[in-house]
Specification:
This protein is an alpha/beta fold and 154 residues long. Helix content is 21%, strand content 23%.
Length: 154
């Protein structure tokens, strides 16, 4: 997996202060997407053990408490991202108890395959659906267009 950006302190992508990872790879390629540079799987930087360790350490940092981790992109549920995302989620669950995980995807909840469903079983909130430029509404919380749904999964 590759990633485009990691923000150890973020107050925009989910509630509270968070760590946010923007991964590479998106098959949806929504017109008007604000993050088109993340569409290609081979764009960005390799997601290494070092960056994974940094995310876990940042989530554990007591000097700047974070509520949780946000995963965006690209698309964290792109089939080629699932193995790395699952490893990260496993570590967060075991090493960062009490932290929530939010995930943005262009896939609809009803479209997810078994592997993708296994991944979302590890997260708290999923915002699903492609961004549709004609339905863009800046007043919406946590989503860009009115067709997208915020799912509170656990």
């Amino acid at each position: 997996m590759n990633y485009h950006a990691y923000y150890p302190i973020d107050v925009v992508n989910g509630p509270g202060t968070r760590c946010t990872l923007f991964v590479s790879g998106c098959v949806h390629q929504c017109r008007g997407c604000y993050n088109q540079s993340t569409w290609r799987l081979d764009s960005g930087l390799p997601f290494t053990q070092e960056i994974e360790d940094r995310i876990v350490a940042d989530l554990q940092d007591q000097q700047i408490p974070r509520q949780g981790l946000s995963l965006s992109g690209g698309d964290p549920l792109h089939p080629q991202n699932l193995a790395a995302i699952n490893r990260l989620l496993e570590r967060v669950a075991h090493e960062c108890p009490g932290k929530d995980v939010w995930l943005w995807t262009g896939y609809r909840l009803s479209e997810l395959n078994a592997c993708q469903r296994n991944t979302i079983a590890r997260i708290n909130v999923m915002i699903d659906g492609k961004f549709i430029q004609q339905l863009h509404d800046p007043s919406l919380h946590w989503r860009g267009s009115s067709n997208q749904i915020v799912w509170h999964l656990r």
